[in-house]
Amino acid sequence: MTDPTNLSEAEAANELMRLARQIAHHNRLYHAEDAPEISDGEYDALVRRNAELEAAFPHLIREDSPSRTVGHEVAASPLSKVAHEVRMMSLDNAFSDEDVADFVARVRRFLALPEDAEVAMTAEDKIDGLSCSLRYEHGKLVRAATRGDGQVGEDVTANVATIADIPQVLQWGHHPPTPSSEEEGEQFALGLKAPSSSEEGVGGGVVPAPPAVFEIRGEVYMSKQDFTALNAAQHARGDKVFANPRNAAAGSLRQKDASVTASRPLRFLAHGWGAASAVPETTQFAMMQRIAAWGVPVSPLLVRCTSLDEMLQHYRSIEHGRADLPYDIDGVVYKVDRLDWQERLGFVAKAPRWGMAHKFPAERAETTLEAIDIQVGRTGKLTPVGRLTPVTVGGVVVSNVTLHNRDEIARLGVRVGDRVVVQRAGDVIPQVVENLTRDEPRAAYLFPDHCPECHSEAVAEEGEVDVRCTGGLICPAQRTERLKHFVSRAALDIEGLGEKTIDEFFALGWLESPADIFRLKARRAEILGREGWKDKSVDNLLAAIEAKRAPDAARLLFGLGIRHVGAVTARDLMKRFVSLDALKEVAVAAHSHTPPPLQRRGAGGGGDTELPAVPPPPPTPSSEEEGALAARAELSSIDGIGPAVIEALGDFFHEPHNQAVWDDLLSEVSPPPYVVETKDSEVAGKIVVFTGALETMSRDEAKAQAERLGARAAGSVSAKTDLVVAGPGAGSKLKKAQELGIPVIDEAAWAEIVKAAG
Q1: pLDDT tier at 616 (50, 70, 90 boundaries)?
Q2: CB of 484 within 8 A of CB of 514?
């Protein structure tokens, strides 16, 4: 990664734009959809890079900078919205002991404290859950809300009423707090003991009444054990399984039907407060003990530290015992203890100056590779999966690990029986990072050259690392995976046809091809006879299928799983040909004649052959050859459609069984002509060329944006080009545009054009 000091302003601006888009995307997946794509570590790396660039180029800080945002907006949520009286902030992160030392030093400098002055901090485990606020008025819970974007959250009052940890009425008077047996067990399992309330002078007598208004904030979470049980139940029903306990907790709490929340084993731990008519204590630690005395659980690992060494020692202790905790944590939180100092320190951007989250590094563990299994995907890709002797990594028992492909196995030199180091950063699939026994004498692993499912030849095309089964639709693994892809959200999006149902119906012989999905209505009685199916669920499934009788043509094409034809490519093809029949006609014509290979000097001989002074005239092409060349030219004229796509389309329609699947499907569905609606914009009707290393969007995204704005994205610059969007490293196309006097803008300016169009 380029040092920020070596970047130009244009390069920094483009990268900041890209990071803003990336981080916003992952924030949406994590906070709004409970479906993360990357690990916590990968997300933190993006945020750190953004912070580095903003520090080097403060004048380039964007309005939508991730450093200015918290969580994600909740506009699309079905729950009612709640405006937070006091904004729910996030915390800046520390990733090393040096970062923590810098944090303490900054506090000292801001408060103008001498080096020998004590700066007490609280330290506690950072729960990986869903942030939630609980507003109590005169001790009674009146409202609960998620964090949302920090300013507006979702109303989950009815939902938290089902969580046993959250009292509807706070305790005061003669109600001394007593830790639960579970909390005590957590403490002693770690070899740690949080100070009791009596040690701090809060309990053991009369507990003062809470203020008229007091908003308690904390994390709703799900224990590891409960998460495992929930996912097992979800899988057994064919329902969605959750990525990790945090997302299970978020998905369970953010339900429109509170009865769903009630069926999920959610817990709560408080870590602070928000709006309050009064704060009865003068320190963070004493106030947290007061909250515990009111009957709201706080972390059993909350301690008060009086030095940097104590803070780091507590961090090490928690890190050491992390795997034994019943819930997931991803670091330790430090807060300045004195509340008057917190007030003086205040906030910067989205975070307080008086708090810091010290994140854990990626977890690693040693184990043995017991076997290597091969999984076959919908495109025939053979993916090796390592089966491990179960080992705990980051508090999670890991027994499987992806080995990616044949080249990765060779790079690691792994064989069955090897001792390997497994890394788990955040909550993603673990990976092997080191082979500890690669020098031991043991036979190398032989990657299969035939499909383990259908025994067809498995090959890797030139220049590719992936090995694929050549069996196509005769391969049962590919058939089922293609059916799952066909009904997926990005393709036809048929609700109710989950992976379990596809596998069940395929095993019964009811689903052999996509067309069979639309014939399931004839099997209504048979489906009703299956365990778990009732009249309503069957009717809902059949209705969802019938609703797709006139599908979007691009989605249908993408759903067929033709190699190299992704969602964007499918849209590009349908924009040009409008109907599937027209596309098929051109694809078949393009495949009807394969151009002969170019003759080269020295081919087949012992040296260079002497070419005649006057080369013979080229042979006159036949009408079939002319038609094939014209068809190939028409396909390749579409920006982004190259030889790989053309060959893949041709190969698909060349196979009789694929032709049969295509014809059978179109006998059941009738996709309307594909017409793209465009927006008015300043580039409508113009030809736009994108060049250079685009940093904020992919080529496909850029093309899609241009087309939505009524422009046409071209692959080359000519006198007809109206605008060039140049990223870093733009070469010949940029030079030609300058020579022709064509306007050139950067990605930031293009983004403004897109924004202006709405």
Answers
A1: low
A2: no
pLDDT of residue 429: 62
What does residue 165 show for φ and ψ, rounded to 5 degrees?
-70, -20
Highest mean pLDDT pick, 93-97, 237-241, 457-461: 93-97
**Long-range contacts at 497-503 (CB < 8 A, ≥ 24 apart):** 497/541, 497/544, 497/545, 498/238, 498/239, 499/238, 500/235, 500/237, 500/238, 501/238, 501/541
Burial bucket for residue 525 (CB in 10 Å: 0-12, 13-18, 19+): exposed
Full DSSP string of 566-627: -HHHHHHHHHHHSSHHHHHHHHHHHHS-PPPPPP-TTTTSSSPPPPPSSPPPPPPPPHHHHH
Question: What SS3 class is residue 399?
Answer: strand
Helical ranges in 322-437 per DSSP H: 339-345, 406-412
Amino acid residing at 451: C
Most confident by average pLDDT, 59-63, 189-193, 348-352, 504-508: 504-508
Render 643-682 in DSSP notation, one character per residue. Answer: HHHHHHHHHHHHSHHHHHHHHHHHTT--PPP--------T
Q: Which of 292, 297, 299 is nearest to 200 (CA)?
A: 292
Following DSSP, what letter does each residue of 187-243 receive, concatenated?
Answer: HHHHT--PPPTTTTTSSSSPBPPPPSEEEEEEEEE--HHHHHHHHHHHHHHTPPPPS
DSSP state of 395: T
- Mean pLDDT of all residues in the chain? 84
Q: Tell me the pTM.
A: 0.51
Q: In Å, how far are 35, 131, 160, 427, 599 from 265, measured between CA atoms?
A: 20, 17, 11, 20, 71
Q: Which two tokens stand for residue 14?
A: 């483009």
Residue with tokens 């639309």: 518
- Which residues are known catalytic residues? 126
pLDDT recorded at residue 31: 59
Q: Is 556 exposed, middle or buried (0-12, 13-18, 19+ CB in 10 A)?
A: buried
Q: Which of 102-116, 183-197, 292-306 has the highest mean pLDDT?
A: 292-306
Q: How far apart are CA 704 and CA 708, in angstroms?
A: 6
pLDDT over 90 at 295, yes or no:
yes
Q: What is the largest CA-CA distance in the chain?
A: 110
Running DSSP on this structure, what letter comes out for residue 750? Answer: H
The string of DSSP codes covering 425-483 is -TTS--EEEEETTTTS--PPP---SB-TTT--BEE--TT----EES-GGGSHHHHHHHH
Burial status of residue 257 (CB atoms within 10 A of its CB: 0-12, 13-18, 19 or more): exposed
Neighbours of 33 (CB within 10 A): 13
Ordered structural domains, the chain, with CATH: 4-69 (1.10.287.610), 117-332 (3.30.470.30), 363-459 (2.40.50.140), 471-549 (1.10.150.20), 687-757 (3.40.50.10190)
d(CA 702, CA 384): 34
What span, in angstroms and rounded, lies between the C-alpha atoms of 217 and 269? 9
Q: Which amino acid is at 357?
A: A
Six token digits for residue 2: 């380029």
Q: Which two tokens stand for residue 175?
A: 């109600």
DSSP 32: I
Block residue for tokens 């009788």: 549
Specify the DSSP element, H or E, that contains 423.
strand 419-424
The size of the chain, in residues, is 758
Bridge partners (DSSP) listed for residue 122: 304, 335
- At residue 197 the predicted structure's pLDDT band, cuts being 50, 70 and 90, is very low
Q: Quick one: which of 169, 150, 172, 171 has its CA closest to 161? A: 169
CA 406 from centroid of its chain's CA atoms: 25
Rounded Cα–Cα distance for residues 654 and 33 (Å): 41
Does residue 551 have a pLDDT over 50?
yes
